[in-house]
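ok so i was messing around last nite and threw this chain in just to see what happens. nothing serious, just curious
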Amino acid sequence: MSRILITGSTDGLGLATADALQSAGHDVVVHARNPERAGALDPLVGRGAGLVIADLTDRDAVRHLAGELNEGPPLDAVVHNAGVWSGPAVMPVNIIAPYLLTALVPGPRRLVYLSSSSHFDGHPSAVGVDWRGTKSGGHGGGSSAGGSYADSKLFVTTLAAAVARLYPDVLSNAVDPGWVPTRMGGPGAPDDLELGHRTQQWLAAGDDPEALTTGGYWYHRRRQRPHRAVHDEAFQNRLLRTLAEETGTALEPR
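result:
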């Protein structure tokens, strides 16, 4: 049995991942943005899931969350599932929060980061990015003031690859769940929600040889070739340096 945190687990892929992992016998910790959203997790909490509450747009809240997690039983895995599609929260939620949690919660030996095929449209530059979500950009897949959803997903996919390189004892992977019918994806999304969350579950707790690899970009349990910048060590280093300077927190040697 593993102890696994799933961020953004009140609905959609996060909720499906948490429910599947708990049903498989794992000790899950679910996450909600606020107490009102946490009500959706009552069935899982009633079955024994741990619950943490934090607004991932707020860096202080993310730091407090990291402290709370470090004071509790050790985590074996984290599924960085929380994400937003548009608006000022794109960079804070999609890249700053998973970066801070990666840096501040050093124990887990499996890390799964939610990516997207949109990352192929991202721009491999950290210059002028609205890391704090104060500008009007952050919409959709194209370029916009301060960065786009596509940029955020390129950054988080690159973070996953960089963590795999820097920490060879950690299994760090990125997952493209497909365009699935969630609150973000919309009811008309064409991909399979079941297949979308199964890859996260598999990488977080699976024990077959492929699930025990690192540095991958996965779609429906098949390893894919990501944007060429993802495995560019120079870009990885620039991104990590920028994130460390922006947050005042660096990834420490382990």
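not much to say yet. Helices lie at 12-23, 35-38, 42-46, 59-71, 90-104, 149-166, 193-205, 233-247.
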